[in-house]
């Protein structure tokens, strides 16, 4: 709740009482009694509230170019040259929704709009592609939630230098895991119900005893609310 006033997104209606504000999981400015949302959280009233900073990517991202993927009308509620703050309902702005056991998970993506200039022989841009994935989880019968940000930018070249840890995901052609689809054939189109053989492994772990734990894995088309759970609880 220790937010400067230029990052405070109003919570509740005008003139909300401090007691009511705190009861809804929001924050109160001690000087102005202004009620505002905490930052980088999934709220009790079902909203994403998070900030994306200019320095969140290399090269730096322009906050003014950021929108929610799938709904370009979902813009930041606060935007400065240094950061953009988003606030939108967890079930709005084209979010993906899926349920695992008694937990409902909402996934949204923020992307940068690429500004291009038309030239005689093509197009030119100085913008770098940027994507940020945001996830909120709500347990059944409870408004208590956990949420975290996941960077989802284009992967850098594989690193084999000492101390660097990488993760590799490959799709095998059958259960023998001896032949894999090349990157030139990804995405792979498969019939619904057909088994998918995935191999996830650590690349150049700094210690031989390092292990990778996978809690769940999902697959979904970009323009659909349907979701397939590939792995649940490992």
TrEMBL record:
Disulfide bonds: 1-27, 11-26
Annotated Gene3D superfamilies: Spasmolytic Protein, domain 1, Zona pellucida, ZP-C domain, Zona pellucida, ZP-N domain
Record's subcellular location: Cell membrane; Zona pellucida
Domain ZP: 41-234
Protein name: ZP4 protein
Coiled-coil region(s): none
Keywords: Cell membrane, Cleavage on pair of basic residues, Disulfide bond, Extracellular matrix, Fertilization, Glycoprotein, Membrane, Secreted, Transmembrane, Transmembrane helix
CDD domains reported for this sequence: Trefoil
Domain P-type, residue spans: 1-39
Gene behind the chain: Zp4_24
Organism: Polypterus senegalus (Senegal bichir)
């Amino acid at each position: 709740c220790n937010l400067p006033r230029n990052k405070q997104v109003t919570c509740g209606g005008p003139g909300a009482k401090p007691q009511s504000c705190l009861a809804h999981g929001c924050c109160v400015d001690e000087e102005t009694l202004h009620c505002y949302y905490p930052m980088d959280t999934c709220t009790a009233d079902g909203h994403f509230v998070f900030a994306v900073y200019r320095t969140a990517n290399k090269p730096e991202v322009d906050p003014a170019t950021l929108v929610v993927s799938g709904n370009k009308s979902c813009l930041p509620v606060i935007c400065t040259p240094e950061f953009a703050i988003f606030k939108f309902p967890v079930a709005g702005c084209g979010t993906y929704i899926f349920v695992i056991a008694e937990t409902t998970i909402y996934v949204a993506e923020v992307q940068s709009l690429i500004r291009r200039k038309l030239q005689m022989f093509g197009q030119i841009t100085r913008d770098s592609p940027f994507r940020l994935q945001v996830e909120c989880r709500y347990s059944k019968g409870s408004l208590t939630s956990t949420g975290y940000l996941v960077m989802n930018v284009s992967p850098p070249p594989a690193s084999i230098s000492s101390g660097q840890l990488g993760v590799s995901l490959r799709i095998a052609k059958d259960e023998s895991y001896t032949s894999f689809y090349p990157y030139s054939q990804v995405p792979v189109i498969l019939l619904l119900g057909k088994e998918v053989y995935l191999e996830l492994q650590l690349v150049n772990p700094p210690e031989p005893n390092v292990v990778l734990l996978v809690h769940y894995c999902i697959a979904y088309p970009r323009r659909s609310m349907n979701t397939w759970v590939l792995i649940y609880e490992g």
